[in-house]
From TrEMBL:
Residues 23-112 are annotated as: Disordered. Residues 103-112 have a biased composition (Basic and acidic residues). Pfam families: HLH. Residues 48-61 have a biased composition (Polar residues). SUPFAM superfamilies: HLH, helix-loop-helix DNA-binding domain. Residues 99-147 form the BHLH domain. This is BHLH domain-containing protein. It comes from Rhizophagus irregularis (strain DAOM 181602 / DAOM 197198 / MUCL 43194). InterPro entries: bHLH_dom (IPR011598), bHLHzip_scCBP1-like (IPR047206), HLH_DNA-bd_sf (IPR036638). Residues 26-35 have a biased composition (Basic residues). One of its GO terms (cellular component) is nucleus. PROSITE patterns: BHLH (PS50888).
Length: 204
């Protein structure tokens, strides 16, 4: 029994020595590589077991390669739709909704600017306006109604004056015609009265 166990113990001892030499060789090779190539920053990690505390293990913080995001058919469709020849985003996409909101805001801004400019012009034209927009609009409505009433009154006045003027002109024309007729009659009578006196002068 003692003769059989001795070779086994020697074989185990030889394997341990060989494993230790292999570990030392690997360690020296790592040191040589670390001197040649700059290693990234490492953080020592203390082992939990007492046996591992003798040889602290270092974990290198090498950055992991960034894995590309999985490409789905929907993503490919969105990319192809966003690069259409027309340059417009596809209907229903986020870019389409964003552009639609921006266009709506721009149209609304222009509409407000136009309204404000019109109200400012009304404030300059209509007398007695306040700075409040509502007051300016109310005063403008009252002023327009007043102008319409004045216009109607002026039209009525001008129509009556024109009617009276036309009537006076017609009466004057009638009087002129009567005077012309009377003048012609008087000329005829005058000639008749002067006729016998002229004949007497000729005979004498």
């Amino acid at each position: 029994m003692f003769i059989k166990k001795a070779p086994q113990n020697q074989q185990k001892l030889f394997q341990r020595m060989k494993l230790k030499q292999l570990q030392q060789y690997r360690h020296q090779r790592k040191l040589k590589l670390s001197k040649k190539v700059p290693q990234p920053r490492s953080h020592p990690v203390l082992p939990s077991t007492p046996q591992q505390k003798q040889d602290p293990v270092t974990i290198h913080s090498n950055p992991l390669p960034i894995q590309p995001a999985p490409i789905t058919p929907q993503h490919v469709q969105q990319q192809t739709q966003q690069t259409t020849p027309s340059g417009k985003p596809p209907v229903g996409s986020e870019e389409w909704h964003r552009q639609r909101r921006e266009n709506h805001k721009e149209v609304e801004r222009r509409r407000r600017d136009t309204i404000n400019a019109g109200i400012n012009e009304l404030a300059k034209i209509v007398p007695g306006c306040e700075k409040n927009k509502g007051s300016i609009l109310n005063r403008a409505v009252q002023y327009i109604q007043q102008l319409k009433e004045n216009e109607a009154a002026n039209i009525e006045k001008w129509t009556l004056e024109k009617l009276l003027t036309d009537q006076a002109i017609q009466e004057l024309q009638t009087q002129v015609e009567m005077l012309k007729t009377e003048n012609g009659r008087l000329r005829v009578e005058l000639e008749e009265l002067q006729g016998p006196s002229k004949k007497k002068q000729r005979t004498d």
